[in-house]
User: What shape does this take?
Amino acid sequence: MKRTHHGMLAGFAMVTGLALAISSCGFGSTDSGDSDTTINFLAPTYSDGDTGTKALWDGIIADFRAENPDVTVNLELESWDSINDVVRTKLQSESTTPDILNIDAYASFASDDMLYPAPEIVSDQVLSDIQPGFAKNASIEGTQYALPLFASTRTLFYNSELFERAGIATPPKTWAELTEAAKKIQALGGGVSGYGLPLGSEEAQGETSIWTFGAGGSWSEGDKVTVDTPRNLEGVRAIRALVDAGATQPNPGATDRKDVINAFIQGKIGMIEGLPPTIGQIAAKNPGLRYATAPSPTKTGEPVTLGVADHLMAFKKDGKKAASIKKFLDYFYSPQVYANFVSHEGFIPITNSATAVLADDPVTKAFAPTLPVAEFYPSNNAKWAAAQGAIRQQMGTIAQGADPAQVLGRIQEAAN
Assistant: This one.
């Protein structure tokens, strides 16, 4: 989800006459006017332009201030390229530490006892509205510390026209059906590939996880990162079998996700695992493309997918801002406000109430059914970063002849 995207959905008009308390140079200076009713909020930019992330947050803050004139919200936005460095710098002093932070990882802050538990910064109504799987993914040892901002999952995108030409009546549910369909599409020729398999270093862990999860595998057991397991091996061997069948684009071991998505949009690939922003990209680049979505194929046909979420978290510092933070976050997660934000950023809502509001939204229609079957990276485990890096570097070699068992063994060594 750390990808800026532009013009995902319809434009968003902000109409307000209120003066905003927005920091243009960052918060934490001696003249910042910090108090128990001042919230310093650090967030990344997901989309640019007049209707992008800044406009969305500015409008939310203005409307919140109109209803809560006693609370000031200072917003600081950073790019995803720089926000981690900014966070490290700000955390060196309590005066510059943000009160609310929007980022992906929260576990190290929670482990260092820096964060409010979620029940202290949002109402029970908000907590119970969050999809259970995503709430669990925001928890450590049974305590929720972060609030999922929005979700990204994967689902199968398929080219309806290529399916018709290849004589494929229904989207595949199992790996065997996927391989057979991909081979039929590949046989059409003309530079068309059956399945887009991105095992390049951009995000090989994403594609790989869809297959290992589809075999009933996982990347952790208890407090251990578990890569070299029989079920994970079964998933990776299924990837290798698809490559050996000649049913993917050329050189999948060096192909990045963005490349297969672009090729699919151009009508050159029959099937890919797509993300929520893929719908907007198709609408912008090739609105005439005939395509549909279906659950990701698995070994048995039982649906499962990869889930990823960015989070909001609140630093407790001296503990005096909990009431102000709770006011703001309860307002943000109210159904209409939250649904509006998520829909214009082009992702999936993680609350049941916003999902109902967005029932007719194309992204929500395609991806909301995937939320209950989402599985996650073990991002709460400090050793996962090493494992993830090794997957990115090693997994592509299976498409070049490397033995899947040996590849998983090398990745496990990196995680130990």
About this structure: The longest strand covers residues 305-314.
